[in-house]
Amino acid sequence: MRIAAATALGAVVAGGIAAAVVWMSTESAQFALDAARIFAVGGAIGGAIGGALAWRRGQRRLALVAGAIGAMLMCCLISLATPFYTQIPWPSPQAFPGAEVTVSTSGGSWGMTRIQEYTVQRSIDEVRAHYEREMRRYCVGQWRFAPLPDCKGYTTCLEAECRIRRPGMEQFFTVTLRATPDEQTECRQMNSWED
Fold it and tell me: What is the 8-class DSSP label of residue 91?
């Protein structure tokens, strides 16, 4: 029973800390809810570990205190690990093999974006087939290549977007293919992830 109480205390302590810190640092309700959820789960895990360790060592009276300390330690660990997790994109579809890729990265209020652009001496069907194989590996939900309405100077323009499997954060991948009259394919990949 005390272990359950320690777990609950851990979640409450962690959620309270997260809510207070986020409330003081942002006006975004969605960001506050996301942060509180992550810290509450971490606090519950830390609380359970701390409470269980104290209980097993015969320190039943200290189980709640150990749960609170475990929750705080887990919150600190999450705080240290989060910047690394948010700055690094998860694996996503790779560029066409052998392509010389130009990469640019930018950030905004929502998150980070990495754009890769290149041109290959391949048909748009070959490049699309490559991306369809890649997207089957990484994407979740419905996705498909669809023609773009505005295709100035190109013979064919296709675009597909998918969501990438990533716990706790949003990550999207968009690929745009444009076939040139001289049978090359221009590709623009945009990988965006929440920070």
Answer: P
Count CB neighbours of 151 within 10 A: 13
The strand pairing partners of 54, in sequence order, are: none
SS3 assignment, position 171: strand
Distance CA(40)–CA(11), nearest Å, equals 5
CATH 3.40.640.10 assigned to domain 102-194? The reply is: no
Q: Are 3 and 63 in contact (CB under 8 A)?
A: yes
31-78 pLDDT, tens digit per residue, is 566 666 666 777 777 777 777 777 666 666 666 677 677 777 777 777
Query: What residue ranges do the domains of the chain occupy?
Result: 2-87, 102-194
Burial 35-47 (b: 16+ CB within 10 A, else e): bbebbbbbbbbbb
Q: What is the pLDDT of residues 142-175, one digit of tens each?
A: 889 999 988 888 999 999 998 887 777 788 889 9
Give every CB contact of residue 29 below 8 A, 6+ residues apart in sequence.
none
**Report field, pTM of the whole predicted structure over 0.70:** no
